[in-house]
Amino acid sequence: MKSFAGKKIHVIGCAGTLMGSFCAFLKRAGVEVTGSDQNIYPPMSDVLAAAKVPVFTPYAVANLEKAAPDLVIVGNVVRKDNVEMVAALERGLPYLSLPSALEKMILPEKHSVVVAGTHGKTTTASLMAWCLEQCGEDPSFFVGGVLQNFPESFRVHPSKFMVLEGDEYDTAFFDKVPKFTHYSPRDVILTSIEYDHADIYPNIGSVIEAFDRLAALVPPSGNMVVCGESEVTLRVAHRSRGIVTSYGFGDAVDSRCSNLELGPTGSKFLWSFGDEEHRLNFSMTGRHNVLNAAGVLTLCRLLDMPMDKVFSALETFKGIKRRQEVYGVVKNITLIDDFAHHPTAVRETLSALRARHPKARLVACFEPRSATSRKKVFQQAYSESFDSADLVYIAKPYNATAAAPSPDTFSSEELLADLKERGRRAKQLETSATGVKQFASDLRAGDVVVVMSNGGFDGLLPNLLSELGK
Fold this sequence. Notes:
By secondary structure, this protein is α/β, with parallel strands linked by helices.
């Protein structure tokens, strides 16, 4: 950071979880920082305000003139034709992607722990950071979610470890490599590999190639901790020069979970590693979350952490906002906010909620919003993801236009028909005021309603909470 002292930095696309947290970090580090975005809303608007970062909206050339920066940091959502980016290029201002900035500013002095995978990386990275915190390591971390055990999603301390959520999405329009290739991993936890991000990866082979690049970065003395429940993840892990250690359920792994009990207060399971065997309590429920915990337990053991403190950290972990987060309870109806959008994540989220609320009527609301979910690629897989729900509401794909859909466009109508054929009660969800009112009238005391989207879902949750309050 010393080379950036006294400089003015402007962040284009500051309202994303990672970008906003990075702005707050720069401010605390004494850098004069400004930010801009097209739309800014909670929770990141609150984070930026609390950090006293001046924020401009919408994008405009005037924002760059007000900021008068020495360096521009560019979010991966920013396109080359963004008006501020065009102005920065015309002025010849130096610019970096956020991962590249991390690579240059912070990581050379850190023991980098990268958590990667299609699913579970936010929860796993957050849990890893919390375990290291409880072990007295005072870790730095950078996680793509709002952590409930920490007041920030980005923290840099003058300590040994830095935990990073390793995203496989590309870095920026001028830096077309996965973000995690900038993260100099000493150790990696690899949770899963499935097809996702259909806007940049044409097929599963290209996704695997991206994770191969991550595996190749692990040094021979580093750890490659991998979920052993998938042949794909194991193949990728064994392409690493690092020490490969597998975790999962079943007998063919090095770090084994068994005797799983899921309930309303979390999970209980038996964890075995070598000659060790421990009966553990974990604050989160769901088989997938126990697998996330197993990855963290494994790496903590390999790093010689005091395991009694790691076990205690599992019990006090509060999770991540928008991961099975209770948004509100009104008239004995529980509203839950969840980020699930991939069919596997939808299935596992609903399965976990069913275990937590075994006697409730479980109502699932889903918005196809991500680039992948708005394509046909997972049309059939979604029809099999809602079996744990008693009632399903499906919205039309985000930003759907009146134009005729192409053959590879996801169809809400087709999904509704498939769900009904599987015996699910399923309805089209309209997010208009009339639609929300109708939705609220369908709910009854005791219902657990989970709203799943990787975006704002047209304000469905606050609007529904308000409508139910009436």
